[in-house]
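Private note to self, pasted from the team thread so I don't lose it. Backbone tokens:
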């Protein structure tokens, strides 16, 4: 058996189990640390694909910066309380969630089964990447030439999500102080 296939199985299993832990944890901080585990396993999968720069960025940016920001916001807002249990949810909520999950799974399976085999060749061959000056320069050119709007839009959306989270949590705390 090829060692890379075995590593793929290990990293994929860790990613799937970590994703389940993100959903099933009772506290937001525990979910955030489970997400760190998922990010590390994704980094391993990128390394298996030969995308070592992306693997390093995965650890530095997502695991290092964004997750620290998420944990900081959770701790700052004092939201590290156990969430409601699924047993306390209404039957309608459970039914809608189950239908949504099966619908998503159906769409995912349909996409996987109808996909054509990828031959791994694109417009960026090894020769063209070497001609451009290497992987880093090729990624930077594509990112900042073709996808600069998307890159900036994502950074704006992350900032807006953090600001909205702080505003909602502060409003909730303000309302609780008024009622007391």
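Design output:
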């Amino acid at each position: 058996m090829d060692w890379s296939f075995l590593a793929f199985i290990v990293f994929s299993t860790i990613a799937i189990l970590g994703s389940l832990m993100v959903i099933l944890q009772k506290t937001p901080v525990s979910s955030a640390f489970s997400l760190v585990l998922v990010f590390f396993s994704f980094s391993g999968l990128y390394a298996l694909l030969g995308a070592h720069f992306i693997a390093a960025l995965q650890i530095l940016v997502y695991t290092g910066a964004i997750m620290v920001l998420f944990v900081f916001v959770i701790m700052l807002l004092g939201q590290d309380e156990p969430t409601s249990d699924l047993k306390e949810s209404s039957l309608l909520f459970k039914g809608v969630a189950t239908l949504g999950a099966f619908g998503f799974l159906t769409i995912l399976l349909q996409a996987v089964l109808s996909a054509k085999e990828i031959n791994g060749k694109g417009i960026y061959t090894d020769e063209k990447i070497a001609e451009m000056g290497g992987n880093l320069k090729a990624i930077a050119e594509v990112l900042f030439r073709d996808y600069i709007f998307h890159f900036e839009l994502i950074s704006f959306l992350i900032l807006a999500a953090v600001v909205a989270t702080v505003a909602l949590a502060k409003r909730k705390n303000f309302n609780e102080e008024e009622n007391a």
